[in-house]
Amino acid sequence: MGTPQGSPGRGGLGLLLLLLLSPVQVLPETCVWYGECGVASGDKRYNCAYDGPPRALPEDGYDLMQELCPGFFFGSVSTCCDVRQLQTLKNNLQLPLQFLSRCPSCFYNLMNLFCELTCSPNQSDFLNVTSTIPYYDPVLKENKSSITELQYFIGDSFANAMYNACKDVEAPSSNVKALGLLCGKDVKDCNATNWIEYMFSKDNGQTPFSIIPIFSDVPVHGMNPMNNATKGCNESVDDSTGPCSCQDCSIVCGPKPQPPPLPPPWLLFGLDAVYVIMWISYMGFLLIFFALVFGVWCYRRRHFVSEYTPIDSNVAFSVHSHRDNGKITCGERLGERFENGLRMTFTSWGAFCVRNPRPVILFSVVFVAMCCSGFVYIKATTNPVDLWSAPSSQARKEKEYFDTHFGPFFRTEQLIIQAPNSHPDTYSPYPSGDNVPFGPPLTKDILHQVLDLQDAIANITAYFDNETVMLKDICVAPLAPYNNNCTILSVLNYFQNSHSVLDHSDGDEFYVFSDYHTHFLYCVRAPASLNDTTVFHDPCLGTFGGPVFPWLVLGGYDDDNYNNATALVITFPINNYYNDSRKLMKALAWEKEFINFLKNYNNSNLTISFSAERSIEDEINRESNSDISVVLISYLVMFVYISIALGHIQSCRRLLVDSKISLGIAGILIVLSSVACSIGIFSYFGIPVTLIVIEVIPFLVLAIGVDNIFIIVQTLQRDERLQGETLDKQIGRVLGDVAPSMFLSSFSETVAFFLGTLSTMPAVRTFSLFAGMAVLIDFILQVTCFISLLGLDVKRQEIAVFVGILSFSTAVMHNVEIGLDQSLSMPDDSYVIDYFSHLSKYLHAGPPVYFVLEEGHNYTSLEGQNMVCGGLGCNNDSLVQQVFNAAEIGSYTRIGYAPSSWIDDYFDWVKPQSSCCRVYNTTGQFCNASVTDPSCTRCRPLTQEGKQRPQGKDFMTFLPMFLSDNPNPQCGKGGHAAYNSAVNFINNKSDVGATYFMTYHTVLKTSSDFIDAMRKARIIADNITETMGIKEKNYRVFPYSVFYVFYEQYLTIVHDAIFNLCISLGSIFLVTTVLLGFEVWAAVVVSVTIAMIIINMFGVMWLWGISLNAVSLVNLVMSCGIAVEFCSHVTRAFTVSTKGSRVERAEEALSHMGSSVFSGITLTKFGGIVVLAFSKSQIFKIFYFRMYLAMVVLGATHGLIFLPVLLSYIGPSVNKAKIRAAQERTRGTERERLLYF
């Protein structure tokens, strides 16, 4: 118990002189009340009117006086309040204490205001009693008067200074300013006057009688306003405390942080620099190109009789000239020997397959059967996380860390509700004020209907394994087992999900004083309040124990005018289960019933869009099943075309004879077999198959396979059997001619795809793996099984145009959007499309984001605490402060709100001035603030040391109590609901492990928004790690949000695209160089043409609105393979041609091989692609129909038009060694005459 300070001298000479000289009479100290008498309402009592001098405070009140109003603790401690009034003051100040004491100067000023009101010995100077009622004291048996109204004269300067010291104070658990909970108004409408008026209003549910504040800095009506000295939030209250933190006091922070300026656009002549550069480059190319053409024309006119005479270095050399016009180089000889080796190998192999068709076919069937037996072990990956995020990726590791330490992010079931037939409502406040409009869904009738719907959803019953499953069995209930109410984020939770509370109304025959309108308006300003300002004292806090923030449950409003909402949002968080498949299956079963219920729900007054956690995966699976018929029709069209085009149909009567139906079927079966073998082989090794593998690879392999089939069959059809040549030798010779070309394209594609497995993107890596194996097996089956079946069955545009297209594509490719709109993955008729549309239209908050501080930080030391917390004494660059700063510029950082901080709320909770932290003095167990028991004592002593933050052992002793404490009217800071999962204990609760600090992103609508939000959050987290100086301590800060694992791929997709496409082009170049007999220049021409096709694919993507993502990147990688088919066959035919000039060689290559490519891959794929346009799937239409069509058109035009023209200008010279070898092979045969004369 404290002892009062020495009383200052009051009767000295100085005082006497002052009294004599003073022109104003000094009035003696006089009270206006003393003690409590009479019950106002509930447990609230009036104060007793008393106009005598101050009375000495009994000693049992000394501790309270020291705690609450130390300024009056001197002399005989004579005041105008008794011990009971001090206790009432302490009880009434618990809520402001818990929210404002984190800024000591703010709370110091507030205590000054209430101490002067309650206990000042000079009350009569600034308090004026205006109304009393008689009261008989049954204890003292005397008549008294109860004060029912008085005026409190307060200095304007004091009021404004107090407000300025408190206006920035944060409420960490609610992500809002504390005054938003204590002012009775939205924080933006709160000011010094209406804050004090609200605190003294009888309508706030705390004040027992009306106190009317009158603000003035000069005497009014003979009253001297209370105008005590104040402390600014940037000032220390005493030597042991510092100024308020930057988070709670903006003037401590200095200027508000500003986002960095956007980089200026790269412009030339006021236009996009890339466009200008490409235009200039293209015009320069045209100038040089036409100058060269004109120069060549002039040269021809001067030196040759005809201008059409070819200009070629080997024009004089021809195989029938019988003269050696040039020395054969080492490279040419090596190329010829390699080429001849391939030719002889495939010739012998082809003849063997034709002579022994049955063993070859049987072996092929056995091989396919063995490979397909791997289907026994097949696994399909449908989990989006596994499809789009590599196990070694940063986001995947962070997700695993979060799930392991805090549990997996909950599953979300969400409804967005509109009331199309309802009209806006208008509320007229009593007794005065502007009318307040209420949006259509906020009329009482609609709210009752929505509550009926909400209750019906809560009662949905599902069945799993003969067990019933209801929402209460799987929902998130943060206060369980003390409170098993489910978390339902709904505006109806402001009304405790109760029809009767929604119907609360107080008024008379003329006016409505309070009803659901007033409760709603109060709750959107103070969602964590446990008591509104009406006679009903209804809480706003949700039945689950946590606040319901208006931006999460209302949509379509402007600014912060929540009453204008045009949509209601209801969210049911469901527990997700980490490594517990049975519980997860229960949740899935309930979600299925939830979806069925809402699909069949009918209420003409409500328009509902909805989604469950399983909705996207369900709809993708439904989409895949619905598109099976489209895919089958596509393959049927291609099969019919192949069967007809492979034959020489002479008449309708000979259709079945001349058509190659059997070969068509064989070709299709070989394609399907190669895909099946690829899947089977990798299934043996436990590599799961994906939807992309099933949908894309058959198309790819069919394109390659059909091209090879047409080359073989049409080459055979054009060939004439030599004299004395048997069928097996003829087919062997034909295969020897064309198989090296097939081997070139197939092996190039196989190597390119296998190198694609170096990608870190799972979708690309899996596609590349399966595609490479399928292409390899398809080639093997074609040169074995198909050759045997074939034997049985037998028993150009100007270059300038293309360069212009290339220039255009190069200029726009950097404008291709990155990402994948979720709605594109849904079928056209999916209910989820409406949900996505309304999500971006109505929601006002983005996904939650958690800043996770990994295990290893020391929270028990002052230094460690200051690195993290955001309150008094914390570092200005602490974790919480940096996230707070980021929220200040949310339009740039995409952080929407200040973070909820468990450590700051813990420090407020554990303060000895608060009634939150108490223990039983007999057992040391925690005693909740709502418990009335004399054995409950403060956790920490009310001393200067006790008022400091807990450190060391104390920190860990009380933290579990805080995290188990449920919020209640006596203590709103209990951390059970808000932070129970935010702190991970280790070492048997003796240390704190990983923790998180949660906030929300701003509204994210497009893929670029999501990508930017993740990028900015990582920058913030990295900067926090840097400023905390923990980089070298093997732990860090990282951000986590549920969407990061899907969008991380887009942070590096440009790099991945460049890497994969360059790897593909590089491997194609190397393989082409070798298999063309070391024709390096030919390989360069092929690679350049394929690169042009890829660049032009980007141009098409920009024109046709196709974004760059994993699906389109797979298609681009596949484009490389398709492009090889279009280019390699023509190029090889050019290099082995024996014609005299480049033009003639290009013509021969185009006539012999180009026709097969055109009738094979081009027309076949074109027919199949057109069918895809009729798919219900947006993904099929955009990423398959559009991109496949672009592949075929660009491949055909470049391979069959641009490439021959380019070869005719700059193609490689004739390999003289190959020409001589060809001469030797055909010498003395009829083929020599056909080829060379």
TrEMBL record:
<keyword id="KW-0812">Transmembrane</keyword>
<keyword id="KW-0732">Signal</keyword>
<keyword id="KW-1133">Transmembrane helix</keyword>
<dbReference type="Pfam" id="PF16414">
    <property type="entry name" value="NPC1_N"/>
</dbReference>
<keyword id="KW-0813">Transport</keyword>
<feature type="transmembrane region" description="Helical">
    <location>
        <begin position="691"/>
        <end position="713"/>
    </location>
</feature>
<feature type="transmembrane region" description="Helical">
    <location>
        <begin position="1083"/>
        <end position="1104"/>
    </location>
</feature>
<feature type="domain" description="SSD">
    <location>
        <begin position="627"/>
        <end position="792"/>
    </location>
</feature>
<keyword id="KW-0325">Glycoprotein</keyword>
<dbReference type="InterPro" id="IPR032190">
    <property type="entry name" value="NPC1_N"/>
</dbReference>
<dbReference type="InterPro" id="IPR000731">
    <property type="entry name" value="SSD"/>
</dbReference>
<feature type="transmembrane region" description="Helical">
    <location>
        <begin position="1187"/>
        <end position="1210"/>
    </location>
</feature>
<feature type="transmembrane region" description="Helical">
    <location>
        <begin position="360"/>
        <end position="378"/>
    </location>
</feature>
<feature type="transmembrane region" description="Helical">
    <location>
        <begin position="1057"/>
        <end position="1076"/>
    </location>
</feature>
<feature type="transmembrane region" description="Helical">
    <location>
        <begin position="661"/>
        <end position="685"/>
    </location>
</feature>
<feature type="signal peptide">
    <location>
        <begin position="1"/>
        <end position="28"/>
    </location>
</feature>
<keyword id="KW-1015">Disulfide bond</keyword>
<feature type="transmembrane region" description="Helical">
    <location>
        <begin position="266"/>
        <end position="299"/>
    </location>
</feature>
<protein>
    <submittedName>
        <fullName>Niemann-Pick C1 protein</fullName>
    </submittedName>
</protein>
<keyword id="KW-0472">Membrane</keyword>
<dbReference type="Pfam" id="PF22314">
    <property type="entry name" value="NPC1_MLD"/>
</dbReference>
<dbReference type="InterPro" id="IPR053956">
    <property type="entry name" value="NPC1_MLD"/>
</dbReference>
<feature type="transmembrane region" description="Helical">
    <location>
        <begin position="767"/>
        <end position="792"/>
    </location>
</feature>
<feature type="transmembrane region" description="Helical">
    <location>
        <begin position="734"/>
        <end position="755"/>
    </location>
</feature>
<comment type="similarity">
    <text>Belongs to the patched family.</text>
</comment>
<keyword id="KW-0445">Lipid transport</keyword>
<feature type="transmembrane region" description="Helical">
    <location>
        <begin position="628"/>
        <end position="649"/>
    </location>
</feature>
<dbReference type="InterPro" id="IPR053958">
    <property type="entry name" value="HMGCR/SNAP/NPC1-like_SSD"/>
</dbReference>
<dbReference type="Pfam" id="PF12349">
    <property type="entry name" value="Sterol-sensing"/>
</dbReference>
<feature type="transmembrane region" description="Helical">
    <location>
        <begin position="1149"/>
        <end position="1175"/>
    </location>
</feature>
<feature type="transmembrane region" description="Helical">
    <location>
        <begin position="1110"/>
        <end position="1128"/>
    </location>
</feature>
